[in-house]
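Page 47, continued from p. 46.
Same chain as before, 155 aa.
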Amino acid sequence: MGGAPAPAQLGVRRLTAITSLPARLDALEGDARERAHRLLDARLVHGRTVPPPELLAWLERTFGSVDSVREQTVVKVTNLVTLEATLFAPLRARRPMDGGHDGDDLAAQLATTGSDPFCDPETGTPADTFGRIRGRRITSGANAALADARHGVLV
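Result:
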């Protein structure tokens, strides 16, 4: 029956995971590869965290495994023409989301934070691989679901 050839007949394969995008662009040949690399910078970056023992059970329940939090992959894609960029961090899709608070009632919102991970950042947040930065009134932590290779919080 006529019509356009199927993508598989053209040598085009479906992208099945965003983490394979950099390798798929590198696998292009000739002019297609040149154009892709002129238009896009796609790369994998790897982030690492060091969770405290007190956090391990929660990480297992929330993210499926502690190792998925210890070693994370993020895809960074930059449009080299417009300089727009985006980050794809698969673990972030599984993070718990706060919500349901009335933004006008700060006292009520603060009253619900007794079990918040930031109440005790030493046990409620992972550390960065270099450790924590501590000051008189501040402690650093890594975000459990990284958005980039380094993604920290200051509490």
